What does this fold into?
Amino acid sequence: MVVAQFGVCEDMVLPIFQRYEERCNMERKRALRLMVCAAIIVLSKVGTMYAQAVDYLLILDPRQGFNRATGRIEEATVAVRPRDLYMEFGLFLTISPRGTAMASSGNQNLEIVMNFGLPPNAIVTDSWLWVGDSIMQAQIKDYWTASSIYETIVGMRRDPSIFTKTNDRYELRVYPISATGVRKIKIAYLVPLDWSSDRVSAPLPLNLLKTSAFMPPLKIMFWGNNWWSAPQVDEFSDIVFAPVRDTANGNFLSANLQVPSVAQKLTFSTKSPLQNGVYVSAYHNGKEGFYQMAFRPSEVLQTNEAPKKVCIVIDYDATKSSTTLAQTLKSLQESLLANASPKDSFNVVFSRLSVELASASWLATTRDNLDKIFARINTMMLYGALPNLVLNGVTYAAANNGVMLLVANSDGFTSSADANQLVKDLQSSVKKIPPVTILDFCDKGRSISVGGRSYYGNGYLYTNLAQISGGAAFSTRELGTISAAALQSAQSLSGNKAVQLDMYSTMQNGFCFSRYSVIPTSEALSSQVGRLAPASITDGKKMVLQTGKFLGSLPFILSLAGTMSSLPVAKTIVATTAQIELIGGVNEQIWSANYMSSLLPTGSVPSNAAIAEIVAKSLEYRVLSNYTAFLALEPNDTLRACQNCTLTSDNQRGGSSSGIQLGVALNYPDLGVRCTISPNPFSTETSIEITLKENLQPEKCSLSICNAMGQVLTTISLDGYVGQSVLRFRWDGEIQSGGFASPGLYFLMLKTPSGLAVWKLLKTS
It folds into this structure.
């Protein structure tokens, strides 16, 4: 039953509002209230049990919210496909209450609630729900229509799922699941890739698996091609992806992974598709085209930049950081590869019982060399030996005209006198201390105060050492993650400040427009970066990632001009059809998601027009937004199971969509009642006109205005309308308890002898 189109009986709607009120009471008890404020809308996401940052999987009784337990993921499969500047993950989960107190309750009408985060700038494109053996592909609707349908159907004991988004947090609800049953769902989303010199990577959804009371094995299925190959899980690189021939799903590579419960993250990577530093994909739907482009200016331009020798000094104290040594080395390796040139080299100073040099000579900064050396370093002693390590590193770098990268988490120099003495000893040991870049990942240290300024761990020592040597200091406390701090450190070593390039993308027969930057996951975690594609480049080794539209036909042309390392450069790159990966409509979804993000202002709520545009594009391109939802329903006379939903099927836009109808009343033909609300949205006052069907007596009806929780704010008397068929009145937001309703979403409810009619009111600030 679609609430936005048909009338609903009171005994169906009132339990919904009772559920809303019960959940609201629970929210108040926990002092948590989720609201996404907008100029015309306040989204109230009721039913959230824990703080936003906590991922969880609950099995609960929707009519007794206090009765809940952690659910169990019985099976987990992730289907992985490269999508140009993104990686697509199709996560298939089988969920049950097994092993919980809920399993013995005998309740046949439990609800699954899964709340989780995805990486920044992830794009959710699909949701499936299994009803028996049938796959029901979710429809995408505006949030309010979808949530009202879901709540109504839950009250009718039927089979829906609803998938919603609030910024980078997501909630999936499925109803019902029996105390002894299972439900199977699929979530599909895209994640921006991180790029190194020869690999591209994206995080696997480990946090979703950890919501389970039992950590399930993870089956990974990968569909590659000539552009994308050599898949691996970076943290378990010894796991082999075996070829599988499947008549139903085609040929793919598969691996089974038993995930340790202590694992912090899992990263999936493939060989990079860059060819001479450039990659372009394109798709044309017959009316307009969509493209994605990736390139690394330093590789494309191949300037005569002097090679760098980096002496990496690693000091690790297992008691001073929540980041493991393996995680630190992995983040450092990827950051070095992303910023090194083929001519750069490295060596490593580390300690066992004594300070050692990893190699007798400098090694080229390649993945193979880093893998080999870091595998050896991973057995180093796990307690700090900072003074000797730094002394050996400074001496080695100075003697070989190199620079030094100190990667440390110890906090033994919390005395300013000791720190100053160490710097003096270093200055006396070499003629000139080489540039020292510091990656400080201590997060279990002590603080000191020097000259009225507070320093954490060895922060005072690192600040002075970086200043006197001409280097730089970065910390995970400031940048948030080891990956972000490692990336900043590697970029500082690469010396990209003398780069100034203008870039312009176009078509030989046409032009490009509506360009947006794609922000890699690691960068999105560490900084707020704008979406508009840059017209200039100031970091030659940093990847430039862009999505946009085009009119015309291939080839694709990229023009670069400016200076790099103080040298003038100019180059035009022409990508012909043979050099471009031609892919399907996912390019449209990626462009639309970036376009929708550009409509969200920083630090303020979006405008009425922006929200309407976001909803329109979300429905058109089947991309989840803050204002829409995926809704899967059981099969019925008009809704058929998906016949094309297979592991190999691409996400198609299709499906039923229902948009927000701002300023247009929602009518209920079966009740014969019409309502006009103008203006709607409104800020100070709105006029309401309700036309009743013949023989419907106003004195036998009641009229009220409720909030999104179903709580009655005001009741409108109909005593003065006896014998009339048209009810006219105005509402200025005043409520019975005193004061005025705040901006947000409200419901005008007309209770008649034959049913209940509901219309939406949107009050703006």
Notes: DSSP finds 14 helices and 45 strands in the chain.
